[in-house]
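Narrative summary of target 7.
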Amino acid sequence: MKLSVIDFETANNSSASACSIGIVVIEDGVVLHEAVHLIKPHQSVRYFLRENIAIHGIEPEMVEHEPEFDAIWPLLYPWLDKGVVAAHHAPFDLGVLNALLALYGLSKPLCMVIDTVEVARKVYPHLPNHRLNTVCAYLDIPLNHHEALSDARGSALILLNAMAHLNDYDLGSLIRHLRLKEIVL
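Modeled conformation, tokenized:
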């Protein structure tokens, strides 16, 4: 089963203000695709909050000549459609994706969703918290936190480590085994 792990960074508090997306695609344990895209936010949400810039380091000038999300979507859609999509704190990333799809009138992919926070909580309950940087540090996964591709890689490796820990390498079986909540896109 194809697994696509995504991570968004946003310019401000609007879910539709994505300024970067990282994606890692894995099938049968093999990385098929990795990419990071800078995104120029839609004109209706094209302002950057200093707080967001301080988190991810993306300045308005860095996306000035980048495509908007609707131009990037055709590159992402085939990887997400008819597979499993994962993200660390999936409600945030799905909220961004849904806001962008609605803003641009784009089709949703057909997919199951896994929240790697929920996976980490069930597999590593002893951790003080299950933030991406905490879980990655525990698993010795390199992380440049809040760089979208690095965060997507970290989330993918959390999921793969959990599968190895449980000796369960089938995504459908893992979802049932951990009794993960079904998240709808």
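The radius of gyration is 16 Å.
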